[in-house]
Amino acid sequence: MDQELEGTVKVLLQKAGQTNNFIRQAVDAALESMMQYCTATRSICALLSVGVSHPNTLVRQCTARHLANLVEKVGAARLLSGMKEPTERILHSVTKFVQDVSPKTRYFGRQMLLSLSSHPNFDKILEKHISGQDLLTIKNIFINLNKEGNKMPPDSQSAKGKRIVPVRGVGNKTEYCEQLTSLLASNDFRDRIKGIDQLLADCQHNSNMVINTIFPVFDAFKDRLLESNSKVNLHALESLPKIISMLKNDMSRVVNILFPAIVDNHLNSKNNAIYSAAVGAINALILHLDRQILVQPFCTKAQFLKGKAKVDLIEKVAELVPEVYPCKPQVVEHKVLPLLWHLLSTSTHKGSTLCRSGSLSSATNKLCQALYVQMGPSLTDLSASQSATVHVLLNDILRTEN
């Protein structure tokens, strides 16, 4: 059975994401049997491979519950044995669970954290494999656990007995659109998260229906990127790369709807998880969509944003230049050059605006270099029609860098 474990767990966890309570109970029973009769460490590996980053909240909750039992069974000494890959894997998974949108998943994540903390060198191991904001978050959670203990969250009364009409399988696109957008616009944030999960599932299994209703669906999805609930924001942002990878160039039709919502509220976020998820969504757009389509929205936002968001987008534009210019030089000349002239005309070139991705002047330099590699001396020729400040500064940058 051990050899078939990962495939079996994958099928079971898919079923765990269904709303039918009887099916979920049967899945739990099957996973309990697996834990009893299969090798514990292999069971842990199978659950980690399938369930940790699953888009469905119920699947992650089920995964965390069974992992918590296995972690306690196997013990911290074996799980944190010093081998890099398994140690990192379990710690990174626990880090995700304790920050999950689901209170119950967070509860089971904290339970695993307590089990692992029994290792005598837990603090050193944690600092070795987890860093940055995640490490700070784990330490704060651990302090609270020592003060207050790990309390199981109560079942939500509003969620009890509430039945969500399954969207998948709806044949009429009007009905489909109404049901999905209603879920995404629900007053209950848990239902809005379910709506995001449903959209993700439909992109995989019912993509034609999503594409046929792409404007109203992603208009509703956009609101989830803009709302005040950070849990929903983060879940929507983290789902976007998967959605983009499945719909690919069909997403180009809604770039102008989604892109401002991705960057406006999130690229300047002090929340590392939200910032990273926003960057991931932007990278997915670059990876899966026609780059020519992205030039205009990227340049427009790069011109008017401030702070690290401005720096990040300028650097992304610099990455787009060598991809787009050989095929569509006019797109670069019409969209990217005005951005460059704006940056040079407003720059003090002192590099004082420091952000995660570096200074504003550094990003501007990268853009200058990217353009010069493609355009050569014609770039400086075109700058002659701009102000003397722009022309001189561009030549200074190119002379310094080269």
Question: Mean of the pLDDT scores?
Answer: 85
Helix content: over 70%
Q: Beta fraction of the residues?
A: under 5%
Largest sheet: 2 strands, antiparallel
- By CATH, the topology of the domain at 1-148 is Leucine-rich Repeat Variant
Spatially, the strands of the biggest sheet line up as 1-2
Give the tally of β-strands: 2
Distance between the termini: 62 Å
| Computed CA radius of gyration, to the nearest angstrom | 25 Å
Fourth-tier CATH superfamily name of the domain at 1-148? Leucine-rich Repeat Variant
Poorly predicted runs of 5 or more residues: 156-170, 350-358
Structural category: mainly alpha
**What is the count of DSSP helices, taking H or I runs of 4+ residues?**
22
Judging by the overall fold, what is the CATH architecture of the domain at 1-148? Answer: Alpha Horseshoe
* Series of secondary-structure elements, N-terminal to C-terminal: HHHHHHHHHHHHHHHHHHHEEHHH
Q: Which of globular, elongated, flat, extended, rod-shaped describes the shape?
A: globular
* Assigned CATH class of the domain at 1-148: Mainly Alpha
Notable traits:
402 residues, mainly alpha, Leucine-rich Repeat Variant, two-stranded antiparallel sheet, 22 helices, TOG domain-containing protein, ARM-like, microtubule binding, TOG
What's the layout of helices and strands?
Elements: H1 5-16, H2 21-37, H3 40-51, H4 57-74, H5 76-79, H6 84-97, H7 103-116, H8 122-129, H9 132-148, H10 173-184, H11 189-205, H12 207-212, H13 214-226, H14 230-247, H15 255-264, H16 272-288, H17 291-304, H18 307-324, H19 329-346, E1 354-355, E2 358-359, H20 360-375, H21 378-383, H22 388-401
Antiparallel strand pairs: 1-2
